[in-house]
Amino acid sequence: MNNVFQRSASKRLAQFPTNFSLRQETPWWNQILDPGSPTLTKWNHVILFTCLVALFLDPLYFYLPVIGAPGCLQIDRTLGIFVTFFRTVADLFFFMHIFIKFRTAFVAPSSRVFGRGELVMDRKAIAIRYLRSSFIIDLAAALPLPQIVIWFIIPGSKGSTAAHANHTLSLIVLVQYIPRFSIMFPINQRIIKSTGVVAKTAWSGAVYNLVQYTLASHILGASWYVLSIQRQFECWSIECSKENNGTHSPSCNTLFLDCSTVGRPDRNAWLKQTNVIINCDALNDDDKDFEFGMFADAFTNNVASSAFTDKFFYCLWWGLKSLCSYGQSIVTSTLTSETLFCCLICIAGLVFFSLFIGNMQSYLQSTTARLEEWRIRRRDTEEWMRHRQLPMDLQERVRRFVNYQWVATRGVDEEAILKSLPLDLRRQIQRHLCLALVRRVPFFNQMDDQLLDAICERLVCSLNTKGMFLIREGDPVPEMLFIIRGKVESSTTNGGRTGFYNSITLGPGDFCGEELLTWALIPNSDSCINLPLSTRTVKSITEVEAFALRAWELRYVAKQFKRLHSKKLQHAFRYYSHQWRTWGATFIQAAWRRYKRRKMAIELARQENLFYDVDGSGEGILVVAEVEDDEAVSSDAGHQAQHLGVTLLASKFAKNTRRGAKKVMARISHDDNMLKMPKMFKPLEPDFSVL
């Protein structure tokens, strides 16, 4: 009984669809990522943007110390909260980046002999390699050190002042700025390795370089501001030490330089009697004991006590001005540290400005590279035409074609691009570009998809300006053209026959050069050495864009695909071929003219031969009217002589009439020869059955 139950249960389980598999997929946090996958490429762009934001946020800590009151410093709490929040968000992205790098495969160095190499998917090997390479730098860049210092360490320390907080915070930001700046380079290299470029368009690349240059100016301006505050506090400290003795009452205390003591009675008493503020005023030119040097603008323009937005944009402008002028506009003092800082600005300005101009020129030139090539080619063409002394009308036609080719292709060699791609991609692209256009040709609409794909794969673009002869009558036909846009005139004189001219207008969806199809289907290989001669002259009426199917490509398609013997395809070729249409129209016109000629000859002979009928041999037969009246037969003999005279006159008249009829028939025959159309030979029909 148990065996029966187990067999029935196994049968029911076997009937379950495969979608309800008991095997669970690996969760996303345990998956190993391919370093070249689109997901990881997008993440690299995200983390690169995060690095730029983090590098922009960190210098904002330099703006936290402000002059809150005369002679004291304080920390801007509102700005500190704003910067801390956004920096914490950026730190979360850095920790996510560390986690993703623990789940990113790498290419084994031993497998890079050929091709891309073999990916190592082992988690342990990935972790060991990452811990030995860049884990320490990534961790140092992700730690929230400034937040910990400004909100936990400094408030918890005894006797901490704004100056102490400024020094500590500035040191932490500068130390952590190095790993944050250094991780941008490997991310940038990974993006270039996977996609080829950081910015896909020229303008985005120019903006990317402009952001980097602006970021350098922002860092320089923030550093100048925090050093200016430090310079001001240094002056206050020196002057305060002079008053910290028994000769000055009340004595100066360094705690008075912190705004936390504002409002205390002893500080108010000291503030009324002190000379610290007057001696450390940058606008005071009388006291030259302390020089502010390059930092004087921060106090003469009241930058240190301004609102944050005014302060920020002024410092950004100062950094841009200093980098662009290589520090030439800076007035320094003789202090060694200040001079070294100015030297650093000059070198950084030279390096950054050179890189910025070079990268901007490269990106912007990429947008006009094709245009510049076209200008050079056009200049060379003009010089060549003048050197060869071409006629002016021919020169104008060459200029018109060059301009039209630039407008249509923008200087891109589509054929070279397609040849560099794999075969499958070429087929898919050609199918996307040409299939809908080829189906617009009624003759090709009768073919199946496989044959159309083979034809689309071998089509090339053909551009022609107004007034160009695509094919001339009597010349070999090198290619079959399928018109996409524009109009052409197709005319023929039937081999130069006098009095014959036929012309039609071809538009989008039409084709010309159908002689190649007959030539391609000829089974005898000896007759395929020479190309067929064109029976029509094709001239462009407007600018024409077309796809061309070359002779040998068409013959290859005809040999490879045996389905061209279809009766349906044969009827379609006859119906849409302009040669067959012209031949049919000419055949109908010739038959109609023969009919009109015969009818006119019969009518003319009937009108001139009132009493005679002209047979096919041309002999006249006298028609004698039978007199049935008995009274006329029984007339008297006196009238017999009169009847004899009438008979002679009638015979003479019949002879003259016969002579005149012969002249009329000769004249009609001559006119018929004059009006006869030249014989137009029936066009060759492709042999659809013998392949």
UniProtKB/TrEMBL annotation:
Keywords, comma-separated and alphabetical: Calmodulin-binding, cAMP, cAMP-binding, cGMP, cGMP-binding, Ion channel, Ion transport, Ligand-gated ion channel, Membrane, Nucleotide-binding, Transmembrane, Transmembrane helix, Transport
Membrane topology annotation: Multi-pass membrane protein
Predominant subcellular localization, coarse grouping: membrane
CDD domains cross-referenced by the UniProt entry: CAP_ED (cd00038), IQCD (cd23767)
Membrane spanning residue stretches: 46-67, 79-100, 130-154, 339-358
Compartments it resides in: Membrane
Pfam families for this protein: Ion_trans
Residues covered by the Cyclic nucleotide-binding domain: 443-517
Presence of keyword Isomerase: no
PANTHER family linked to this entry: CYCLIC NUCLEOTIDE-GATED ION CHANNEL 15-RELATED-RELATED (PTHR45651), CYCLIC NUCLEOTIDE-GATED ION CHANNEL 16-RELATED (PTHR45651:SF114)
Similarity-based family: Belongs to the cyclic nucleotide-gated cation channel (TC 1.A.1.5) family.
Protein known as: Cyclic nucleotide-binding domain-containing protein
Organism, scientific name: Hibiscus sabdariffa (roselle)
